[in-house]
Write a structure and sequence with these properties.
By secondary structure, this protein is an alpha/beta fold. Helix content is about 30%, strand content about 15%. It folds into five domains: about 120 residues, Ubiquitin-like (UB roll), CATH 3.10.20.740; about 130 residues, 2-Layer Sandwich (Alpha-Beta Plaits); about 230 residues, 3-Layer(aba) Sandwich (Rossmann fold); about 200 residues, Dimethylsulfoxide Reductase, domain 2; about 130 residues, Barwin-like endoglucanases, CATH 2.40.40.20. GO terms for molecular function: 2 iron, 2 sulfur cluster binding; 4 iron, 4 sulfur cluster binding; formate dehydrogenase (NAD+) activity; metal ion binding; molybdopterin cofactor binding; NADH dehydrogenase activity.
């Protein structure tokens, strides 16, 4: 099909419910009040020429190309800045307008190189299109040389800036301001001397505050800002709408193709999670799918000290099935298990847990989602009756107070972070929302250009429950609770019991200040703001869940929302920011050892009967093993075989040496992934996976939004991941016969009440659906608990603060907490194989100047990071973003293996690891530890691949 860009209506859509009728070029049109004349014309496919206008940005009115004539009005107003009026009669094309537009366009062209045939934007250039639209065929003015001598800025690895082609429309500046909120770009000079600058005159795009989100590239109407991939490959000739495979925001993109070659990923303006915005990962970091290190053929080996042998799919699957069946026959079904992936589709995840339960015969299935967000499922299910967030992302537009705890949206969920920043800046015309940040580290939201938190509660890591209990103490004792809401919507007796508990003097901010290290007056002010500031919404992340009291913290958050009535409408709620793209979906699909899809316990006989009848097998009623239990059992000799799809537990799980010991003790480890990851060092079978660009399916984002993933190219390995899992099941004799992922979704829908109304056809037609989608909610549920909680009455649960067992002391006096950075993703398997490593090529240890001075450490020095579990080395970054006594690092790079120092302590309810609190010592070092050197050598030997030619000769 012919490539067509998305329609551009010139100015944003009006939200008014009042309708206005006018006439444009003799045709009547009815639009909402506040709509611009330009957009009204576009609604009836009347295209008014424009250059500075685009519907992702507010009206600007600078290019003077969109002039119109209006009966009864003098002059020629700009249609982009002129709102419609009842009875207005508009003329968009007259001889006078034609003359004016040609004159304006001549001025633009006189300062623009006429190299269209060799320009990267040829055929995809708005200036070129508009010159044709106004009928310009010659230019009377001499070409100015103002910009022609300026050098290209090629510092950014993904796009170039060519000032010679700039028409000073300011769209890139406005996109950086209005869409991204970074304000990295400015306009310098006037008239023909006007030019775009990335900050100071000496700055380039790479060295500036630019975060490479691509909003400026998207907005540019010429080839001034253009992707290098477009210049190298050419303009696209077709596009497929799909969903990003990075974080839990779930951005929708147009994968724009030339043949089977991906040219660029353009954020889809109709994407309901991202509204046409993107971040550096989703927009540009897709090159890993074609990376040279990707494994595209199956490999096997008898033991992990041998090199890999490349084999056919039939041989690899037969080898794996034989080993699994032999283990089951000798040691029983409980000796086998599987791990699902939050990076894979719902359909693929569902098949893996089905393979474990129906094929292996055990409930030994777990997921990385438990390692990050299982306390969310437990805590919200206990209090509200459902295991997911309560709002859609757009709900933040109605928030008056935003409380961010244990999350860093601008780095980990950047597109939603930009959305939140727009509300905090008040650019929608309303007063800016107030902001409370609860985090031991000074994240960007605490203070950055044009944003500053009203309160930053820089708590001591591990004291979340104490801080939230102290906030509840203020709300209850100062009479700020919403009693009417509580009496109507919650269990009153449980509330009174909870209120009595939080009112105790021992739970006051003053008493707990010694524990939390948050000044009492700061905490009291934050509590009052949350309770009385209007619509108050809570957003939280892994800094809440990855603690020994993770579930208690989620419950404490839910308690606060119920106590203040901040639940069940727009602008409020409890909103977990899921880490990976399909964390929500992998939980929904039954990836936990104690739950089937839809969060129904495996011990429930009636639920189990539904699956047994559909699958034709008998399911064991007892919960299976979680990942750490599998590893323990492997060391003991009772767990022998593991199938891991799309996860790297050796890098992402805590206490790496324990993980390695468990994997090494198994008879058969099957890794199904794109690359030879760290876990594959201990694998016997490697099944090559497919990227999100090579398959169909669905992802479910953090707002419960189910969206289609569409195949845009043929899988390099020959099969999509769901086909690989099906092939393994059939090699074991299960006889599965799915022809397409839509059939798997049909099975999910008939077995899972919250997905009952979901199908590929509906998703294709409607774009997305937010579960529950069923008879009670046929169109989905953007906002949960509107008229009542899923469980009936909201339940208050007492959350007593219990200090973690991980203690600081003379040997380990500092507390380590971990997190993510914008340019890298999770364990870095994808982003490390892109140019994103230019921004973050190694993990660094952030340490406060006081702690650094005590240890003689300077920025850039090698330091040893030691804990009771292990030690590693990395470079130091001296910064006051962390408090004295706290150090921080990321976990994106395997040569650091930060999780070698994290402990086995975990959440009391879900075993979610306590990544965020580790007692450590930091000291000067001169290079890698012995453990790192040994690990590197073991990894190098483990990744040897025997030459195929030598194999054949033998």
């Amino acid at each position: 099909m012919t490539y067509q860009p998305q329609a551009d209506f010139g100015t944003p859509e009006s939200r008014s419910t009042e309708q206005v009728t006018l006439t444009i070029d003799g045709r009547p049109v009815t639009v909402p009040a506040g709509t611009s004349v330009m957009r009204a014309a576009a609604e009836i496919e009347c295209s008014i020429p424009k250059l500075c206008a685009t519907d992702s940005l507010e009206s600007f009115g600078s290019c003077r190309l969109c002039l119109v004539e209006i009966d009864g009005r003098r002059g020629t107003p700009a249609s982009c800045t002129t709102p419609v009026e009842p009875g207005m009669v508009v003329h968009t094309q007259t001889p006078h307008l034609q003359k004016l537009r040609k004159g304006v366009m001549e001025l633009y062209i006189s300062d623009h190189p006429l190299d269209c045939l060799t320009c990267a934007a040829n055929g995809d250039c708005e200036l070129q299109d508009q010159a044709g639209a106004v009928g310009l065929r010659e230019v009377r003015y001499p070409v100015e040389a103002t910009h022609l001598g300026q050098a290209k800025d090629q510092s950014n690895p993904y796009f170039d800036f060519d000032p010679s082609k700039c028409i000073a429309c300011s769209r890139c500046i406005r996109a950086c301001d209005e869409v991204q909120g970074t304000l990295a770009l400015t306009m310098q000079g006037r008239g023909f001397d006007s030019k775009i600058s990335a900050g100071l005159a000496s700055d380039n795009f790479l060295g500036s505050e630019c975060v490479s989100c691509g909003a400026c590239v998207q907005a540019c109407p010429t080839a001034t800002l253009v992707e290098r991939s477009v210049a190298e490959i050419g303009t696209p000739d077709r596009a497929v709408v799909t969903t990003c495979a990075y974080c839990g925001v779930g951005c929708t993109f147009r994968a724009e193709m030339r043949g089977e070659q991906l040219v660029r990923m353009v954020p889809w303006k109709d994407g309901k999670a991202n509204h046409g915005h993107s971040c550096v990962k989703g927009r540009f970091a897709w090159g890993y799918a074609q990376h040279a290190e990707r494994i595209t053929e199956p490999m096997i080996r008898d033991s992990i000290d041998q090199p890999w042998r490349v084999v056919s799919w039939d041989e690899a699957l037969g080898f794996a099935a034989t080993k699994l069946n032999a283990i089951k026959a000798r040691y029983g079904a409980t000796a086998l298990g599987g791990i699902t992936s939050s990076r894979c589709t719902n359909e693929e995840t569902f098949l893996v847990q089905k393979l474990v339960r129906a094929g292996f015969g055990s409930n030994n299935v777990d997921t990385c989602a438990r390692v990050c967000h299982s306390p969310t499922g437990y805590g919200l299910n206990k209090t509200f009756g459902t295991s997911a967030g309560t709002q859609d992302f757009d709900s933040v537009d109605e928030s008056d107070v935003i409380l961010v705890i244990g999350a860093n949206p601008t780095d980990a969920h950047p597109v939603f972070g930009s959305h939140m920043k727009r509300r905090l800046r008040g650019i929608d015309g309303r007063p800016p929302a107030k902001l409370i940040v609860i985090d031991p580290r000074r994240i960007d939201l605490v203070r950055s250009p044009h944003i500053e938190a009203d309160h930053h509660l820089a708590l001591r890591p591990g004291t979340n429950v104490a801080v939230l209990t102290a906030m509840a103490h203020v709300i209850v004792t100062e009479g700020l609770a919403d009693e009417a809401f509580i009496r109507e919507r919650c269990d009153w007796d449980e509330y009174q019991h909870w209120a009595e508990f939080v009112s105790l003097p021992t739970n006051s901010p003053e008493h707990l200040a010694a524990v939390t290290q948050v000044p009492a007056e700061t905490l009291r002010a934050a509590a009052r703001l949350y309770a009385t500031g209007g619509n108050a919404a809570i957003y939280y992340g892994l800094g809440v869940t990855e603690h020994s009291q993770g579930s208690s913290t989620v419950i404490a958050i839910a308690n606060l929302a119920m106590a203040t009535g901040n639940i069940g409408r727009r602008g409020v709620g409890v909103n977990p920011l899921r880490g990976q793209n399909n964390v929500q979906g992998s939980c929904d699909m039954g990836s936990f050892p104690h739950e089937l899809s839809g969060y129904r316990h495996i011990s429930n006989a009636s639920v189990r009967a539904l699956f047994e009848q559909d699958w034709g097998v008998e399911l064991p009623p007892e919960p299976g093993l979680r990942i750490p239990n599998m590893l323990d059992a492997a060391v003991e000799g009772t767990f022998r075989g593991l199938y891991v799809q799309g996860e790297d537990i050796l890098q992402s799980d805590p206490n790496i040496q324990h993980v390695a010991a468990g994997l090494a003790a198994m008879d058969c480890v099957i890794v199904h992934d794109l690359f030879l990851n760290e876990t594959a060092n201990y694998a016997h079978v490697f099944l090559p996976g497919s990227s999100f660009l090579e398959k169909d399916g669905t992802f479910t984002n953090a707002e419960r939004r189910i969206q289609l993933v569409r195949k845009v190219m043929t899988p390099l390995n020959g099969m999509a991941d769901w086909e690989v899992t099906q092939a393994l099941a059939n090699a074991m004799g299960l006889g599965w016969s799915y022809a397409h992922p839509s059939e798997i979704m049909d099975e999910i829908a008939r077995l899972t009440p919250t997905f009952a109304g979901v199908s590929f056809d509906r998703l294709d037609k409607e774009g997305s659906l937010q579960w529950p989608v069923n008879e009670a909610h046929p169109d989905g549920s953007p906002i949960m608990h509107v008229d009542g909680f899923v469980r009936g009455k909201g339940r208050f649960v007492v959350t007593d603060y219990i200090p973690t067992e991980e203690k600081t002391g003379p040997r380990f006096p500092l507390l380590l907490t971990t997190g993510r950075i914008l340019s890298q993703y999770n364990v870095g398997a994808q982003t490390r194989r892109t140019e994103n490593s230019l921004w973050h090529g190694e993990d660094q240890l952030e340490i406060h100047p006081v702690d650094a001075e005590d240890r003689g450490i300077r920025t850039g020095d090698w330091v040893k990071l030691s804990s009771r579990a292990g030690e590693t080395t990395l470079r130091a970054l001296v910064t006051d973003r962390v408090a004295p006594g706290v150090v921080y690092t990321t976990f994106h790079h395997p040569d650091t293996q930060a999780n070698v120092v994290t402990t086995d302590y975990s959440d009391w309810a879900t075993n979610c690891p306590e990544y965020k609190v580790t007692a450590v010592q930091v000291g000067a070092s001169n290079g890698p530890t012995d453990w790192q050197r040994d690990y590197d050598e073991q990894a190098r030997r483990s990744r040897r691949i025997a030459p195929v030619e030598a194999e054949a000769a033998e």
